[in-house]
Amino acid sequence: MSSTSSNKDRGSYDDNIPQGGHNNIQAVTFAGEGNEYVVIGGQKYYRHELMQAFVGTLNPGYAKYPNTEFGNASALGLSCFATTTLVLGLFYAHAKSISTPNVVVGLAVFYGGLAEVLAGMWEFFNGNTFAYTVFCSYGAFWITFGCMNVPSFGILSAYDDPAMLGNALGIFLLAWGIFTFMMMILTLKATAVFVALFVTLDAAFFVLAAANMTGSVSCLKAGGILLIISASCGFYGMVSGVANKFNSYFTVHPLPVPQYHKK
Questions:
Q1: Are 50 and 77 in the same domain?
Q2: Which Pfam families does its entry note (predicted)?
């Protein structure tokens, strides 16, 4: 392809590119002699004008580079999630023989809860529907968890029967496990760390649900370990969202998941 025709094509394609925000991705195909174009929802873009799945922005698919002056709110959301999840995971794993997680209440309400919801709302204005849904949902989860452990709310004390309380908490965690599973299947074409974050978090919800329903200490510890792994993936994503060659001597790699296409 000659440089003249390439520039001409470039101009015609640029005219069709909507300005601002991310696109609602319906289908992704490739075009050009060297697959230099990416076709998304009927629009053709050069590869270098797009960014692929990247846990640092909590966006599992192709998206336009943002042209706003806002920062990366996903880095904040991932930090809120990872820090709160790590602390709770350590308690459930009985680190330092501490088995009461009440100290995480303030962290859950204000950092994992309020700050994470705000990060989700900022991602809403950035056009990142996935991050908006995930951060607002898990932020609300953490606020709910914190309120459960505040005696004045009377949520846990409303259950006189310990077995009924365990079953109720189990159902609560099962619902979040189902939600997490639906989010997890949207990351299978993303990156390895992206997938690992949601897989381990999803497994943790189901294992902790079993721990509450059965009273198994082993399940509780296993759930805590899974939370720690998920939190570690969240920290990886947080660093990948803020580190670059100008502020860090190292940057993390996206580790993309191999994609399989029908021939």
A1: no
A2: Gpr1_Fun34_YaaH
Which residue positions in the chain have pLDDT lower than 50? 1-26, 36, 46-50
Which helix H or strand E contains 46, and what residues bound it?
A: strand 43-46
Are residues 122 and 231 located together in one domain of the fold? Answer: yes
Widest CA span of the chain, in angstroms?
Answer: 78
143 CB neighbour count, 10 Å cutoff: 18
* 52 and 114 part of one domain: no
- pLDDT (0 to 100) of residue 125: 87
Give the three-state DSSP class for 240: helix
Q: Does residue 249 lie in a domain region? A: no
Helix/strand number for the chain, H first, E second: 8, 5
pLDDT tens per residue, range 106-160: 999 999 999 999 999 999 988 889 999 999 999 999 999 999 999 999 999 999 9
**Domain contains 247:** no
Q: Looking at the DSSP assignment, which residues form a beta bridge with residue 54?
A: 59
CA distance from start to end of the chain: 26
Question: What is the pLDDT at residue 98?
Answer: 87
Q: Which of 34, 60, 54, 58 is nearest to 46 (CA)?
A: 34
pLDDT score, position 5: 41
37 and 89 inside one domain: no
Residues 149 and 39 in one domain: no
Asked if 63 and 128 touch (Cβ cutoff 8 Å), the reply is: yes
Structure tokens at 153: 């709310």
Range of the domain at 237: 73-242
Position 191 in a domain: yes
Same domain? For 90 and 113 the reply is yes
Using left for φ > 0, alpha for ψ between -120 and 50, and beta otherwise, residue 41 falls in left
CA–CA separation, 183 and 141 (whole Å): 15
